[in-house]
Amino acid sequence: MFEVAFHDADPMLIAENNLQDAQREIDRLRGRQLAWLKTVIRRKGIVRDGYRSLVDWTASRPDIPHVVARDPRI
Questions:
Q1: With the C-alpha atoms ordered 48, 63, 56, 73, is the resulting torsion angle positive or negative?
Q2: Could you tell me if residue 26 is inside a domain?
Q3: pTM tops 0.85
Q4: Is residue 6 a part of any domain in this protein?
Q5: Residue 27 CB neighbour total at 10 angstroms
Q6: C-alpha 58, offset from chain centre
Q7: Does any domain span residue 45?
Q8: How far is 17 from 37, CA to CA, in rounded Å?
Q9: How many independent structural domains does the chain possess?
């Protein structure tokens, strides 16, 4: 995952590449989360569990902070 720094490698370039790799990994994980949330929505898991909204369900069941569950950018 992380690049090995050789004696002539640019440490800033290595850091930038590692940051980009980490961001790609975060994006892949967010995509997996979205796929699971779609499954919950399709199977009406929110109503079945007695929650008023997907935000409430997400904040309580997967233990994601309410402010994060409500954030539309995520």
A1: negative
A2: yes
A3: no
A4: no
A5: 10
A6: 13
A7: yes
A8: 30
A9: 1
Per the structure block, which two tokens stand in for 23? 């961001």
Print the domain residue range for 42. 13-70
* Among 63, 60, 64, 58, CA closest to 40: 58
- Position 56, amino acid: D
> Based on C-alpha coordinates, what's the Rg of the chain?
18
The encoded tokens of residue 70 equal 């409500």
14: number of CA atoms within 13 Å, CB side? Answer: 11
- Each residue's pLDDT, cut to its tens digit, for the chain (74 residues) gives 556 656 678 999 999 999 999 999 999 998 998 898 889 888 888 888 888 888 888 888 777 777 877 777 65
- Predicted local confidence at residue 2, as pLDDT: 58
Amino acid at 13: L
